[in-house]
Fold this protein.
Amino acid sequence: MNQKNQNEVLEKIVSLAKRKGFVFQSSEIYGGLNGCWDYGPLGVEMLKNIKEEWWKFMTYRPDVEGLDASILMHPKVWKASGHVENFTDPMLDCKSCKSRYRMDTLGESINSKKKKKYLEAIDFSKLGINGGLNSLSDEELEEKFEAALTDTELVPLILNEMVCPNCGNKGTFTLPRQFNLMFKTFIGPVEDSGAVVYLRPETAQGIFVNFLNVQGASRQKLPFGIAQIGKAFRNEINTKYFLFRTREFEQMEMQFFVKPSADKEWYDYWKGERLEWYKKLGMRTDKLRYHDHPADKLAHYAKEATDIEYEFPFGWGEIEGIHNRTDFDLGRHEQFSSKSLKYFDEESKEKFVPYIIETSAGASRGFMAFLVDSYREEVVNNEQRVVLGLNSRIAPVKAAVLPLVNKDGMPETAQKLEEDLRTAFKVFYDDKGAIGRRYRRMDEIGTPYCLTIDTQTSEDNTVTVRERDSMVQERISIDKVKIYLFDKLNS
Ligand code: GAP
């Protein structure tokens, strides 16, 4: 698929998400709020199902405990974590049209030819290029360009040559400034610097600071983990691709505390487990991959790291990060709080700061990946149908109850069935329009089963069950529908 078609696919998915009530733009009637989205009736069900699957996967095992820490935390937490100092992006403005750019995205939007031209205008011997620009491969050219943008001496020279992608004016950029991505607010009635608190940019810190509370209360021994699902906020400069990069999003994070000597074993274990989770929930294997971070690109706290990436229509993008965070986090919180966060190992009688293996998944980004992955258009009997082939555990509606016609007692029987099923599953009752159209509507929102009450129902107490993907129909006794759905949905 070429880029244009891929963008069209994404547009179709965004449009379906809105039309069917999965996702709406936040504050739409006021023109929307950039980087914020609202989950509609189907979206909230689907997101809840994803979170529930993750929660069960993590906390229904004996060595992981749950936690729900508050969003607002003591401001020192973010000093200890390094967010106050380091959670920044370099940004610059165009003085002419006032457009604001994140430095790296400005670089991304320029092709190699232009990069070469800009580099030619500066004294590139300072970049250690001896044989001239023509001796460089495309990759090396990219590297030199990136290096020039982070060199305080060269950056003003190169910016002087660059053209604003929005207004086309040359040399109108300000110098880059560091911009902190945390949202700041104030606690209490006085808005002074002593009252500053932050909306958490990740849920992880709530787990770190509660490590000994949870360990003591649950009497867990190493190795064990703490899992949490919750909102996180980042004042992203460039929000993009629908739910992919937003300012408010949800994370599903699990921090696994281990003996330092066992870090490699557990890192490999969780790396494998997490990829399998996506596959078991039906995500296409060829659309998933690991991106291992090379040693020279690791975050300051990490010994080893990988991203689980999904191939979106716009390219590969991270949906989850797995890090060996060493003893960095607990060590820093010890230092900043002056409280010991050491673990006492009863067997060896040793006291030490555990290492942490982190699995950090985006619930909203995962939601988008499941949506994209399941979307398909196909022609059946010369008719096009759109299907969300969602795994039944994730599908927002599990079954639709459809009386074939609105007479002959069919609606009454259908309503009775719907009322009974409603106690166990999210079901949908639909009596509007031709049966074929009703099936299509259910396919489009990913409903795995349609149950049709027809003339034969009153004769032999059976209903037609139609399966979404194969469209195969079978008749089963109306009394067996609930158990049938239990079996199918949990298999
Ligand atoms: N505690 C580690 C941490 O927060 P991260 O790579 O910054 O690591 C983890 O974030 C996951 O959170 C990402 O893999 C992604 O799924 C999700 N995420 C991060 N920033 C996001 C954003 N602006 N919008 C949506 N999801 C985001």
